[in-house]
Specification:
Radius of gyration: 27 Å
Structural class: alpha+beta
Number of helices: 10
Strand content: 5-15%
Number of strands: 8
Distance between the termini: 52 Å
CATH class of the largest domain: Mainly Alpha
Shape: rod-shaped
CATH topology of the largest domain: Arc Repressor Mutant, subunit A
CATH architecture of the largest domain: Orthogonal Bundle
CATH superfamily of the largest domain: Winged helix-like DNA-binding domain superfamily/Winged helix DNA-binding domain
Number of domains: 2
């Protein structure tokens, strides 16, 4: 039987067999976590795990308890075994299954912090940000200031990169830089301050470094 499930999930990914040298650790973790979660998004598999958490059972026992055909139970057990959540050992001609606590530990590690959960949305968020920039920018010119706040924030994060970290600008220079991209420098200047992307004191402005920039040596 291949490692391909009907919904198109490549179960080999959960074991890392398709990893490439160019992939980052976070992208591998994300793909692995998605495979785990998609495999577990099935009520029957969760019920099987619950029964195996209580005690070791054979396919026949599970089929009887769940009122399913043994072949159906075997299919679900194979999926769970492929991501390391169940283990099997033979007792004569009978296969006995049990839950693998280490497999659950791996899932827990992938979901250990809110930051790790946020990782699930990173790919889509990056794609959406690129789309917003494509929609509102043309050869460095801002077509219009987005009305939707989240889109406006993306544009402002792009705009602030036109200013150097550590450099202090008088207001007229700030206006000049903004007007290279859009004529309404007053609105965009206020928005940069409001979003705490730039700071102002006594008519002088400077860019506030992002956490990533502050972490650089």
């Amino acid at each position: 039987m291949s490692g391909q499930e009907p919904d198109g999930v490549d179960m080999n990914e959960a074991r890392g067999e398709t990893e490439t040298e160019t992939e980052t650790g976070s992208s591998v973790d994300l793909r692995t976590l998605l495979v785990y979660l998609k495999t577990l998004a099935d009520q029957t598999r969760l019920r099987i795990l619950g029964l195996l958490a209580a005690e070791r059972r054979s396919v026949e026992e599970l089929a009887t308890l769940l009122d399913l055909k043994p072949s159906t139970v075997s299919w679900h057990l194979t999926r769970l075994k492929e991501i390391g959540l169940v283990e099997m050992r033979a007792q004569g001609n009978t296969h006995i299954y049990r839950m693998n606590g280490k497999g659950l530990g791996r899932i827990n590690k992938l979901l250990a912090t809110p930051e790790r959960v946020v990782m699930l949305g990173d790919v889509e968020a990056d794609a959406w940000e690129r789309k917003v920039l494509r929609d509102f920018l043309e050869e460095g010119q801002l077509k219009e200031i987005p009305a939707y706040r989240k889109k406006r924030q993306i544009i402002l994060r792009w705009l602030v990169t036109q200013f150097e970290v550590g450099h202090v600008y008088p207001e007229n220079e700030v206006n000049e830089i903004i007007q290279r991209h859009h004529p309404d420098s007053a609105t965009l200047r206020r928005e940069l301050i409001g979003e705490k992307l730039m700071a102002r004191e006594h008519g002088m402005y400077w860019r506030i470094p992002s956490p990533e920039e502050e972490a650089k040596p």
